[in-house]
Amino acid sequence: MKTLLRLCAGLILVFFLGFFLAGGREVLRLETVGRVADWATESVASSVARSDAATQAPADGFTRVKRLLFLRDAVDERMAAKKIVSADELPDELLKAVVAVEDARFFTHPGFDIEGIIRAALVNLQHGEIEEGASTITQQLIKNLFLSQEQTFARKAEELALALDLEMRCSKLEILTYYLNTIYFGSGYYGIYDAAHGYFGKDPKDLTLPEAAMLAGLPNAPSLYSPYEDFLLAKKRQFIVLDAMVRHGMISESLAENAKIEPLYLAH
């Protein structure tokens, strides 16, 4: 219980720090307080489909507070306009591949990965530039759904606060499912449904291990790794994913080696 309370306190502190740095002081104005009072009497369950451009639009202080307090509703609102593949239609190999290459400690961290942050900082210091990121799958989902791409302390603080909040409201499987349904896979394909059909002409549940591993490797640099743009580079990325799965004990080495040499047939 004490751990949960400390986590909540940290969540609130980080959020409001980023909130105020981003210009959130307006929420304390009398007219904003009045808006909160009026809005609190209304239903928060309505879903309005929004474009990807609107998703990335900057939010005012009122919207930030509403989003934090009712994050699950905000997520459902964003997901309502998307083609959703449910968790039971996602093959286990795909889930493992994504976790292995994107966020190996996904099932154990609270929304952010301290070890990953330290490792990325050391790598970036060594190279003198940004070579490696430290965002978790949860943070990437939050950014894709709600935030802009700007690299500011305020935006990162809000991303962290919302990621911690989401981890307390949703299961890991739900978060991973949301992520796979929103991420960009290159060649104009957003979400795992379009990617599976666009690249391999099949439903996600029918993906093989080699296909799942290739798709899992695309979001890191979708325009670069798309097999329609550069098949050899996409194949090299698939090898990296399979090796990561072996390294983290998700598949055997022999299974990975067989997957590497299995032919892949693209839909186009």
Explain this structure:
This protein has 268 residues and is mainly α. It has a domain at 1-41 and 60-83 and 110-171. 61% of the residues lie in helices and 0% in strands. It is built from 15 helices and no strands. The chain has helices spanning 2-21, 30-40, 52-55, 61-69, 71-79, 92-102, 114-127, 137-146, 153-169, 172-182, 192-200, 209-217, 222-225, 231-247, 253-261. The longest helix has 20 residues, at 2-21. The protein is globular. The termini are far apart. The model is unreliable at 15-55 (pLDDT under 50).
What kind of sheet is the major sheet?
none
* Structural class by sheet pairing and helices: mainly alpha
Low-confidence stretches: 15-55
Distance between the termini: 54 Å
Tally of separate helices: 15
Q: Write down the secondary-structure element order.
A: HHHHHHHHHHHHHHH
Give the helix level as a range of percent: 55-70%
Average pLDDT, rounded to a whole number, is 79
Number of beta-strand segments: 0
- Tertiary shape: globular
Q: C-alpha Rg, in Å?
A: 20 Å
Strand content: under 5%
In short:
This protein has 15 helices and no strands. By secondary structure, the protein is mainly alpha-helical.
What are the SSEs and their pairings?
Blueprint: H1 2-21, H2 30-40, H3 52-55, H4 61-69, H5 71-79, H6 92-102, H7 114-127, H8 137-146, H9 153-169, H10 172-182, H11 192-200, H12 209-217, H13 222-225, H14 231-247, H15 253-261
Helix pairs in contact: 1-9, 4-5, 6-12, 6-14, 8-9, 8-10, 12-14, 14-15
